[in-house]
Structure formats: structure tokens, C-alpha cells
Amino acid sequence: MPSPSRLYQLYNHWMMRTATYFFIFLNLSLALFEEPAVYPLPFLATSVLEVLCLLVFLGRLTHFAKVTLHNVFWKDTKNICIMVAILLSLTDLAVYGVLRLYDVRSIRWSRIVRPIFLINFAESRQIRRAFRSIRNTLPEITYVFLLFMFSLLMFSLMALKLFGERNLQTAEGLPYFRNYLEIVFDLYVLVTTANSPDVMMPAFDFSSWYALFFIAFVIVNTYIFMSLFLAVVYNNYKKHLKNEIRKLAYMKRRKMIEAFNLLKEEEGEQFVVREARWKQLVKLVAPDTSNSHRELLLRISDDEQKGFVDKKSFMQLADLLNIQVVTLKIRRHPLARRLPALYGSAPSRLLRSVVRHRAFVWTYDAIILVNAIFIALDEESPYVSYAEWVFLALYIIEILLKVYTYEPREFFGKTQFWNWFDTLIIFAALTATILNATLKSTMKYNSQQILDIVLILRVLRLIRIVDSIQRFQVIMNTLINIVPTMLTFGGLTLVVYCVFAIIGMELFHGKIQYFPANSNAPHALECGNPALKDSLFARGKYCKNNFNDFASSFIVLMELTVVNQWHVFANGFANVTVQPAKLYFIAFHIVMVIIIVNIFVSFILEAFFVEYSLEKSEVETAIEQKIQELGMGVQEDELHHEQLLDNMESAEHELEGEGGTKSQSKGLVFKIASKRYRTVDALLQRMFEAEIPLEDEGPSFEEILNLSPSSVPRSPGSESAA
Fold first, then answer.
1. Residue 83 in 3-state DSSP?
2. Nearest CA among 400, 462, 465, 463 for reference residue 430
3. How far apart are CA 145 and CA 187, in angstroms?
């Protein structure tokens, strides 16, 4: 039987995690092939695939149970949710299959629970955290929403009294503000500004003074209440996010204490972890760490090289492993090895110093700006055409000079994104230009569009110019830091879209049809439904925006998220079904736009504030400072007994430094990864942990799990001290 550690490593292996995500998205994508389908497959085929996915989920859950304490596993709500979802899906599939045999149409209601697998597996903790933020924010939002609805209903009542008896009509010839429920809906749409100023015009045409009513409504409901929604969401999001981070910090501290107690040995008057055990532990929990990197971490933990790690240093092991340390291999340039006299000559050194100088970068930044201007000019002009060849030649010279100056394998290292980007774009432009010129000279063929795309990609190098300006770096760092959160937000959006898409297909499938422009089908101009005759939906030719399949539903939901013209969609689908169908669109707007989008905005605000405060105070942990002090070149020769050699060298090795580099032998250089590649959660956790003394063991597990945003836990030490 495999050991628990092997089962744990297998559970967290990247292939297992990738396979889990693959089957999760396969399960979600089955909606594309099930009725109503974009690409219909036989029911048997989709059923077999769904059963396969459910078996994989069950196996993954069983594997998780093997590496989790029995009582912890059964107390975890997400595990119960997965088991219930599997059971419901199998039951619904069986019932639907039996009814299908008897030609009885039924609803596949279990499809709505498929997003549960995306939310509740252990790999999706960020999405669960986002849903917890929504759940925790709902009580506060509810109070604001009730006040907002009270305001909306009051203004609707005033509108009914002001305009209901005026016999006014809309531009479509319909009665204006005579039905109270219609007024409520129209004014709710006005809060989103989607029907402004159309909804105001009949009253405004009747009397200019009536504009004051709509101005007051917009100020109160659009600007004040919508801002209140954002403020409440942000305040609660920030409060609960910090509570989550605090739980994680205390949990990590408690786990590290337990690990130390299991490995400790007595050394004099203190307990320590021996070097051999420390190495074994690091190799077990971080198997991909190289020997050199591991020895670097040991040198930091055992600064005096006593052969053991004390409790204080051991508690910092998790931080050490979380810090991204970039290993740079120092190699001599191939020309320096093969043609040392030429490469080391005075002209060669002068040329390399020029390329390394900051002025070289500034010069090419200016060239990129000039090139961007030429791209915007008339491309039919022969001077512009010749200029593109000149710019292309200058870019090729730049790449060749950099490859001559810097060691090629370092210049094209896997972390050198901009070097790869520039080189690929330049040679793609060169290839397209030559191909375009050749084809134009041999046949009547013009591939200018391909060339335009490549030249536009060249303009993307302007991002480098923006990034090089100090004032813009906080914004750029924030944009880079929120990339992982964009994936979380994407997962959150996917869950909401899937649920509303499935509901929308059940409610509106087949109610609206799309016909080509030259179609002679009955009611083709009314999207196949006479109820849409003379409606804004039909006149706007929105027939392709329907819920007839999963893909079309997603497109409609995306358009509803943008908000513009969403009331036209709501009225159109209400006309072909029943008026209460508008509640579907209102519910989507509340969930997606008011709650989820505001949570995303809240995260961007928090990310910017954290990045800005770090930029101002340069908050760094003692671990990072220690690595920066030591860090350093180590010889790549054989390490005797895995010990670092003592001849440490400076780690200030940059591919685009301002000066020359001294001659170094083949070796390694360790560097702290750029701060811009750290997630906001990691930065918040670091800021919170800086406030916890190392001797503070924190609260118990039960107290940690029950921490609330308003509670401030007290450690056992602080209680005894009191």
C-alpha cells in the first residue's frame, strides 16, 4: 500500500491537477453537445462522457479522503457538495434516459449543478474564496439593496402620478408611464443608464421642468446608491479577505510548530532539527528544488553552520520555500571561447559597453515611437514603404548586437519574455515583408493585411517604454499582479454564466429564431415570432441573440454584462413569453454586474493600495533581506557533501546592465524574483505575518477556524502574560 506521503505527492502532482481540470471543463462543455446543441451528439455518447467525468470526480474525491483525516474530510462542506452533485447527476441522467425511451420530454435539471465541481474541488480554493466573499457580503448588500428598492418604488410612484394622466406616448406609440410595474422596470433600467435619455424624452418634450425629476432620480439612484454598493462590497471584501489571510497565516504557523515538534532533537538547552533531517524534509516537500538552491536555503537557516536548525529558523522554512529564487547560470560567450582575441579586443569591448548602456535602450525606444507614427501614416506612400524596411533593418541590427553582447542562452532564457517577443515579432515582420514583396512582383496578390498585423504587433513594444517609466511601474505591477485573479474572476464568471445559460435555454429555447437577410420564411423580420412585430428587438435585428444553444446563451449573457441595450433584450424575451420573464434579466444584472463586477473592482482597488504601500514603504521580510544579502554566485562544480563553496560572488547580474561584467567562470547566480510576480494574497499575508512575533504560536486550530473578521485572536502566550 502506498505511503501517505506518496499519496499526497501524487494527489498534488501537476498531471493529476491538470487531468482534474480537464474533466471539469469537459463536463461543463457537454452542454454544447446536448439538446439544444451547437454540435449535436447522440444521447448515448454524451451520457458515457458524463458518467466518465463523474467517475473521475469520485476517484479524485476518494484520493483526497486518503490523504485527509477522517473527521476533517466529513466535516468539510465541499466534499459533501461534490458527493451530492455526483448522486444528483447520476439520478437525473438515469431518469432522463428512461423517459427518453418512452418519448417523454423532460428537463435535464442536474446540468445546473455541474459548476459545483469547478467550485468545490480542492484546486479551486480561490474561486471558493470569491464565493465566500459574496456570501459574507450579501447581508450588508441586502440592507443597501432594500433602501435602493424603496427609493426606486417611491420614484416610480411619483412618476405614475406625474405622467400617468398626461396621455403621453413613447417614440414607438406605446402608452408612457401608465403601468406601475412597467415604470419600476423602466426606472431600474435608467439606473444602469441603458435607456437614457430615451425614457425621459416624452416627459421632457411635454415640459422641460420634468427633466428635474429624472436628474434627481439619476443622482440619488445611479450615483449615490450604485456608489454605496461598491463601497459596501469593497469594505466587506477587504475585511473578509484579511480575515482569510489571517487564518492562513495562523494555520501555517501552527503547522510549522507541529512539524518542528515531530522532527526536533535535544541539543544542549534547546530543541533543534538536525541538518540531515532538514535536508530530507526539504527534499520531500519541494522535490524540484536543486541541490544548490537547497544548500542556499540551509546556509540561510543555519547561518553559523552548526549542523542544525533552531526553532526560530525552522519556522521560516515555509517562507523560504515560497520565495521565488531565480537561478542564473553564468556562462562565457561562445565567441569569447572560440575567438578570444577578437571578442576581447578594444573595439569589441567598446561596442558591448555601448549596447549595455541605458542610452542604447532609450535610442531604440525612440525608434519604436517613430515607427509607430510611420505605421499610422499613409501606407501607399513609397517613402513610408521604404521607411518600414529601414526600421526592420534597425530592429534586426538591435537583435544581432544584443546576441553579440550577451550570452545567447541567457539572452533567450525561459524568463526573458521581452527578448523572445522582440525576436519573434521582428523575424515574423521580415518574413511577411519579403513574402509580400515577392508575391506582389510575381502575381496580382497583396498580403498587406498580414503585414499590417505584424507591424501592429511591433507597436506592442511601446509597453516596454511605459514600463521603463518609474511613475508607471506601480500601475504596471498592479496589472501583472492581478493576472492570477483574472483567472479566478473568469472562473467565477464561468460559473454564473453556466447557471444562467442553462436556465435561459430552458426558459427561452426556440422562442426566437435567426434567419438570413434574404430569407423568405414567415415572420423572418420578426425573428420567427409575430409577438416581436414592430419591437425594438426586431428592428435592431437582434434575432441572433437567443438562447437556442449553449454558445448563443453565453454571447447573450456577455452582452447583458456590458449592460448597454439590455432592456431591449429583456423586453424582447418578455414579449415572446410572459412579462415576469424580465425578472431573469434583472436577477442576472444584480448577480453579475452589481455583485461580481464590484467584487472584481474591489480586488483591483486592494491590489493597487497594497502595491502602492509596498512601493512607498518597501516592506520586506527578514528572509528576503537575508537572501539579498547573501545571494550570490556558487560554483557549478561538484559540491562535496552538498556543501556550498566559500567563494561567494555578487548576484548583481543583469542581462541589460549599465556597465561591463567582470570575467567569471562558469557558475550559478541566485536572485530574488521580481516583486511584480508576487500575488496580492502573498503580499497581504507577508504584511500580516510581519506583525506576528516569531515566538507567538498563535491560537488553536479550533480558534483559527472560528476566527471572524471582527475578532482579534489572542495566543496562549499573550493570555498567560496577561
1. helix
2. 400
3. 15
Peptide bond into 36 cis (omega under 30): yes
Q: Closest by alpha carbon to 430, among 397, 381, 465?
A: 397
Tens of pLDDT, residue by residue over 26-39, are: 999 999 998 888 78
* Residue that is written with C-alpha cell 473578509 in the block: 240
Tens-digit pLDDT profile for residues 665-686? 344 455 545 554 455 555 556 5
- For 308, phi then psi, to 5°, come to -150, 165
CB proximity list for 327: less than 8 A, separation 6 or greater: 290, 292, 293, 668, 669, 670
User: For residues 481 and 680, is the Cβ–Cβ distance under 8 A?
Assistant: yes
The three three-digit cell numbers of residue 632, written as one number: 550570490
Residue 55 bridge partners (DSSP): none
- Work out whether strand 308-310 and strand 649-650 pair parallel, antiparallel, or are unpaired: unpaired
Q: How many CB atoms lie within 10 A of CB 464?
A: 15
Q: What is the pLDDT of residues 65-124, one digit of tens each?
A: 988 888 888 888 889 999 999 999 999 999 999 998 888 888 888 899 999 998 888 667
Let me know the angle formed at the C-alpha of 660 by 657 and 665, rounded to the nearest 5 degrees: 105
Long-range contacts of 211-217 (CB under 8 A, 24+ apart): 213/155, 213/158, 213/159, 213/162, 214/190, 217/155, 217/187, 217/190
DSSP string, 363-429: HHHHHHHHHHHHHHS-TTSHHHHHHHHHHHHHHHHHHHHHHHHS-HHHHT-TT-HHHHHHHHHHHHH
In terms of Cα–Cα distance, which of 372, 564, 560 is closest to 462? 372
Q: Count CA atoms within 13 Å of residue 388 on its CB side.
A: 27
Query: At which residue does the C-alpha cell 550577451 appear?
Result: 406
Contact partners, residue 635, CB within 8 Å, separation at least 6: 645, 647, 665, 667, 668
Of the candidates 496, 488, 494, 490, the one whose C-alpha atom is nearest the C-alpha of residue 588 is 496
Cα distances from 421 to residues 373, 459, 523, in angstroms, run: 21, 12, 52
Grid cell in block for residue 109: 435539471
DSSP of 165-187: TTT-B-TTS-B-S-SHHHHHHHH
